[in-house]
UniProtKB/TrEMBL annotation:
Species whose genome carries this gene: Streptomyces albidoflavus
Location of the Tyr recombinase domain: 1-157
A Pfam family reported for this protein in Swiss-Prot or TrEMBL: Phage_integrase
Keyword Hydrolase in record: no
InterPro entries: DNA_brk_join_enz (IPR011010), Integrase-like_cat_sf (IPR013762), Integrase_catalytic (IPR002104), Tyrosine_recombinase_XerCD (IPR050090)
UniProt keywords, alphabetically: DNA recombination
Name listed for the protein in its UniProt record: Tyrosine-type recombinase/integrase
Length: 172
């Protein structure tokens, strides 16, 4: 997901039984610092994305310990309960990246590309990737291709298998 989509997520956007996250809005920041929610970049940005069952415990733990309390509470909040802001988040991102021993060439948005590259490696079609990412289609080439929730579940299940198997990298 895009940063603004993550910042706008609420508890009600997480379906623990269906293992999905629904993107309904994106956060924007005005020059004066005010935050507001708006529609995603395009109509394709409104979507539900399946996540692997192997992440359910981590998602549940996050909801229990780090998300705002109410059903409409933000999924990601600062240490004092404030909304996520790009300016505040950058320091936390740099700290987490350093703690993980990851180069400073890795930007937060690169995680979006990595996740979708992994989805591609487990068999997601171009159309399925576009749906998961919230991209508008190039109608002529893709108009007759439709992603199904069953296929999205299969993608999430295969990503889960990669997690169980230690990342799915090639072994010698």
């Amino acid at each position: 997901m895009r940063f603004g989509e993550l910042a706008a997520l609420r508890r009600r956007d997480i379906d623990l039984e269906g293992l999905t996250v629904t993107v309904r809005r994106a956060q924007a920041e005005l020059q004066d610092g005010r935050l507001f929610d708006k529609a995603p970049k395009s109509a394709a940005g409104v979507r539900s994305v399946s996540f692997p069952a192997e992440l359910l415990d981590a998602v549940t733990q996050h909801l229990e310990h780090f998300a705002a309390a109410s059903r409409d509470g933000h999924l990601f909040v600062g240490p004092q309960g404030g909304q996520l802001r790009r300016s505040n988040f950058r320091d936390d991102w740099v700290k987490a990246r350093k703690a993980a021993g990851v180069t400073d060439e890795l930007h937060f948005h690169d995680l979006r590309h990595t996740g979708n590259t992994l989805a591609s490696t487990v068999g997601a079609s171009t159309r399925e990737l576009m749906t998961r990412m919230g991209h508008s289609s190039s109608r002529a080439a893709l108009i007759y291709q439709h992603m199904t929730s069953d296929r999205d579940r299969a993608i999430a299940d295969r990503l889960g298998a990669m997690i169980r198997d230690g990342g799915g990298g090639a072994s010698g």
